[in-house]
Amino acid sequence: MKYSYFPGCSLKGLGRAYEESLLPVMRHLGVELEELEDWNCCGATAYMSVDEAQAGVLAARNLALAERAGPHDLLTPCSACYLVLNKTQHNMADFPDIRERIHRALQSARLTYTGRTRVRHPLDILVHDVGLDVIKEKVVRPLKGLKVAPYYGCQVVRPYSTFDDAWNPTTMDRLLATLGAEVVHYPLKTKCCGGSLTGTLPEAGLRMCYILLKEAVRRGADVIATICPLCQFNMDAYHDQIDRRWGPTRIAVVYFTQLMGLAFGFSPRELGLHRNFIPMKELPAEVGKT
Amino acid sequence: MMEIKRTIKYEADRVRGFAQEIMSVSGCEQLKSCIQCGTCSGTCPLSIYMDFSPRQVMALVRADFKNEVLSSRTVWLCASCYACTVECPRQIRITDIMYALKQRAIKEGVYPKRFPIPILAKEFSRMVRSKGRITETLLVMRLFLKANWRAVFQSWRLGLGLIRTGRFVARHERIERREELARMLDAAANNNGAATRP
């Protein structure tokens, strides 16, 4: 099983623990990833606020590089990248003016994009290509007794709902249950964390994170599992500011791939868990016992 | 003397053709069928901070009140969570309309002054254009210097935490073929008179 891999800027920066846990977990499952050569920033929400045509070109260059690399699907772990690449594909398919403008820009670099490469999220690949039964076989340390709140955020499920529901996705819930964890009912699983508002408008951004953290604590979760580098950063790195404003809501926020790695027997350090501001608590005593 | 403010709009406050301009943007055509139900405002997690609710923005755009929407905080508070777009019973892509408004506010320089969100968008696009990639820690420092230099000092704990956890990147990430990327971005701009060079 082979995929092209588009890490995105966050996985080389603030979200490097996502890459540090994704790569060994995928290798362990026999999934081969080949990083896209000379990939560029997807543009995220910020570039689209400045110029839509150029934002489309940023995404399309990566899609064209993936198509040139081979017939494989493009694994895209970051939610913002996932949305922008998908959106550009939709826009190119639906609107001739956008398609033509992007094609002309690609031609100036002797690149082409026919729309063949599929953009895939690791959750989608793990549950639908690899399969939960295969994942279950690799679990050597079931996360028994660990209560996990599954948090998906916005941009993987909205607006396109490519592989899961827009409001009540369950792919990660099923994956976590396969690892032996106890999945906490968490109705805020697709409520927005505020994105970059934590930095630009803390009053609004931090409150949105506070609501997410408080609700997970109230429902008895030991840890929040996330699939997005910006969600992880917002809900982890601003803990002290959130505590100061609204009272203590200490709970670790980790990538779902880190929990997979723990269940597969990797050490916390091999999975980048030492990069958390709020460290994960000791695993419950039952963990590993079948 | 007490200052008074007119709360009712006059015909003369409209900018004729603005609604048509927005509705001719690819993906924004459906705006004409808005029934003003307010589902967008109800699903929006940020509408409580907005000067106009998303529903009001839709009405203002359709009625040609260009200056009011382009200088509003509402368009910048939209965090692109797409809740409204998914829920709209008329399939209006509200998030994309917000993008069309943001692009015009930046192009015409009418976004609210000293508001950090459009400044972040501009600095972000500048960094992508010159390096091909974003180095988040350097981007945030540039934002703070431009928008609110005091924030640099207020965020020292955050910065130290990032250094401690090995997440602070102090050297620019960059791609190899930066010229190729710049050429492509120029090609996109040249083919569209409305596109801007950040």
Tell me what the structure shows.
The complex is a heterodimer of chains A (290) and B (198). With 290 residues, chain A is α/β, with parallel strands linked by helices. Chain A folds into two domains: 2-120, Glutathione S-transferase Yfyf (Class Pi), Chain A, domain 2 (Up-down Bundle), CATH 1.20.1050.140; 132-275, Rossmann fold (3-Layer(aba) Sandwich). Chain A has twelve helices and eight strands. Chain A has helices at residues 16-28, 44-50, 52-69, 79-94, 96-107, 122-138, 171-178, 197-200, 202-218, 229-237, 239-246, 256-263, and strands at residues 2-5, 32-35, 74-75, 119-120, 147-151, 182-183, 223-226, 252-255. A four-stranded parallel sheet of chain A has the order 2-1-3-4, sandwiched between helices. A four-stranded parallel sheet of chain A has the order 6-5-7-8, sandwiched between helices. In chain A, helix 1 links the parallel strand 1 and strand 2 (32-35). The longest helix of chain A is centred in the first third of the chain and has 18 residues, at 52-69. Chain A is globular. In chain A, 59% of the residues are buried. The mean pLDDT of chain A is 96. Chain B is built from twelve helices and no strands. Chain B has helices spanning 18-23, 39-43, 54-62, 66-70, 74-77, 83-87, 94-108, 116-131, 136-147, 150-154, 156-164, 178-190. In chain B, helix 8 (116-131) packs across helix 9. The radius of gyration of chain B is 20 Å and the shape is globular. Chain B starts with 17 loop residues before the first helix and ends in an 8-residue tail after the last helix. The relative contact order of chain B is 0.10. Classes of the chains: A alpha/beta (290), B mainly alpha (198). The interface between A and B is large, with 66 and 64 residues.
